[in-house]
Amino acid sequence: MQYRGSIPCSHLAATNCKAPAGHHLQHNPNGSATSRRRLLRDRFAELADEVADREAFVRSMQQIGKLGTEHMNVIKSEVADKVREMKQLDEQIKLLDRHLD
Questions:
Q1: Which of 49, 54, 68, 87 suits a disulfide with 9, CB 3.0-4.6 Å?
Q2: Other C-beta atoms lying within 10 Å of the C-beta of residue 15
Q3: What pTM was estimated for this model as a whole?
Q4: Distance CA 97, CA 41 (A)
Q5: Contact 22, 82 (CB under 8 A)
Q6: What is the three-class DSSP state of 75?
């Protein structure tokens, strides 16, 4: 996974997003491959920031001794889902890169 960005990350508590997952990745027939690639990269960076947030949360909770097994399992599942999506995005970005080069 080669793409990282510096998009401001949302806080872990702010997970009540009303938009459907992946709504910003829906295909726009009027959009160019370049703009689609930018959207994919932005989403990749957003996911990377979310993973980093969860890792930081785990570290801070471990330091104060408040991380239970149930919470850890939920966080591991969230991170695994995000990494899975990042891998898919990375493949799509690579395909677009080849197409645009």
A1: 49
A2: 9
A3: 0.67
A4: 11
A5: no
A6: helix
